[in-house]
Amino acid sequence: MRNAVEIVGVNIDNITLTDAVIKMEGYLDGDRLNMIFTPNSEILVDAVKNIEFAQILNSGDLVVPDGIGVVIASKFYGEPFGERVAGYDLMCRLIELAYIRNKSIYFLGGREGVAEEAAKRLRQKYKDINILGVHNGYFDDEEEKLIINDIINLKPDIVFVALGAPRQEKWIFNNRHNLPSKIAMGVGGSIDVVAGVTKRAPDFYQKAGLEWLYRLVKDPKRIFRILKLPKFILLSLYDAKTK
Ligand code: UDP
């Protein structure tokens, strides 16, 4: 049985990174597409306002708590998460798994050149890693058809989708019957970290639950996004108390 906590209407798996990796190994051996989503506070605030987005997140096969806000909220519901599972960490473990098990990868998303750079860096780190294709995340409807055809022809085992939320989750959901893959995962800005375009917060910030602060200092434009964190805390507190 799935051990999940319903937080502001979205079921989030109470799972450790290690167990999530075991699940992903199973997905790679399976015969259908599995959707992986990594909601943080900001995404969950959006899901409260957008029921369609909440339903898409609820259709995920693996939905992990990415962010300190989600971990705090689980305590309000009396079902604390064992740990925070950062989307970036999960992505890195899946890349490692793909390398070890010789599974193939496609990167969709990021600004022009970012997915190429991510692929280049991974080829330096993991010789012979099987990256079948990449495409940036800025395309029109016509181009999108070509991208989907490309993915269908290439048959990658894993598709990493970095189109920002909620676009990437919607894209995965809308294409779930077209994708010939075992895993499609929404990764957002993690593709920029893999490409070396942005840096992950140092360990200190991660351990202190202050990754959001590091990102804010590095990119003050995020202030409006970060403000969703206290909003999420209040929303989840209210939801937990009125359940
Ligand atoms: N992105 C994209 N197409 C879009 C919007 C965003 O490829 O139409 C990419 C953007 O270039 C960046 C990532 O999506 O690489 C950012 O995603 P998000 O905002 O979810 O990042 P995070 O919250 O992880 O920083």
Topology:
Elements: E1 4-7, E2 10-13, H1 17-29, E3 34-37, H2 41-49, H3 51-58, E4 62-63, H4 68-76, H5 87-100, E5 105-109, H6 114-125, E6 131-135, H7 141-154, E7 158-162, H8 167-174, E8 183-186, H9 190-194, H10 203-207, H11 211-218, H12 223-226, H13 228-241
Parallel strand pairs: 3-4, 3-8, 5-6, 5-7, 7-8
Antiparallel strand pairs: 1-2
Helix pairs in contact: 1-5, 2-3, 2-13, 4-13
This protein binds uridine-5'-diphosphate (UDP).
Uridine-5'-diphosphate is lined by residues 109-111, 137-138, 162-165, 167, 188-189, 191-192.
Question: TL;DR of this structure?
Answer:
By secondary structure, this protein is an alpha/beta fold. It is built from 13 helices and eight strands.
Characterize the structure shown.
- There is one protein chain.
- By secondary structure, the chain is of the alpha/beta class.
- It is built from 13 helices and eight strands.
- The strands form two sheets. Strands 4-3-8-7-5-6 form a six-stranded parallel beta sheet, with helices on both faces. A two-stranded antiparallel sheet has the order 1-2.
- Helix 8 links the parallel strand 7 and strand 8 (about 185).
- Bound molecules: uridine-5'-diphosphate.
- The site of uridine-5'-diphosphate has 14 residues, from helix 9.
